[in-house]
Design brief:
With about 180 residues, the chain is mainly α. The chain is built from nine helices and no strands.
């Protein structure tokens, strides 16, 4: 039913140029997309909002390329995944400006309280691929086949990233007092 509704909204945008239908898609998916970016950027809300906005702009511009071969949400996450990797690529090209040092200082100064920060701190210890797989599987509740469609990674690779990422998260959290009987 949800997929049928999404297809109907996409058709309204493409055929009738109904921008309100696209607004409905944005309202429906903006929270999950922003949450995905929030985990990838380790809690940077402003950057997450910027990347989410870029994702929806690209989705709107390329809506006619949606062929209904997968769910609309899977197609949208694929765009989000590409937007994130474009950001990473551009950031690496500017590495001479010591952006990692600036980002490191910025993230440690953010609301340094509670479990939320501990989760972001633990996510820092994962490789980008592991963080993406962990985020999509455990936090966005997507199946491995959908993650494979989004990332282009084989399902075995995704399972490996999930296993290694989960182990790294577990070790980090245990070292920081979680999992102990209190």
């Amino acid at each position: 039913m949800q997929q049928l509704n999404d297809i109907s909204l996409v058709a309204q945008v493409i055929v009738f140029h109904n921008n309100r239908a696209f607004d409905e898609l944005v309202k429906k998916y903006q929270s999950p997309v922003r949450r995905f970016f929030l985990h990838q950027t380790l809690g940077d809300k402003e950057l997450s909002d910027d990347l989410a906005q870029e994702t929806f702009i690209k989705a709107y511009v390329n809506l006619t390329s949606f062929k209904n071969l997968s769910n609309f949400s899977t197609w949208l996450y694929r765009i989000a995944y590409n937007v994130f990797y474009d950001y990473i690529r551009n950031r690496k090209n500017m590495e001479g400006l010591e952006t990692k040092q600036v980002d490191g200082c910025y993230h440690t100064e953010q609301e340094n309280v509670g479990t939320k920060v501990d989760i972001y701190e633990s996510l820092k210890h994962l490789k980008e691929e592991e963080r993406i797989c962990i985020t999509l599987f455990y936090m966005e509740d997507l199946a491995i086949d959908k993650i494979s469609t989004i990332t282009g990674m084989p399902s075995g690779t995704i399972k490996s990233h999930l296993s290694r990422g989960k182990e790294k998260l577990s070790n980090y959290l245990k070292q920081n007092g979680y999992g102990e009987n209190r």
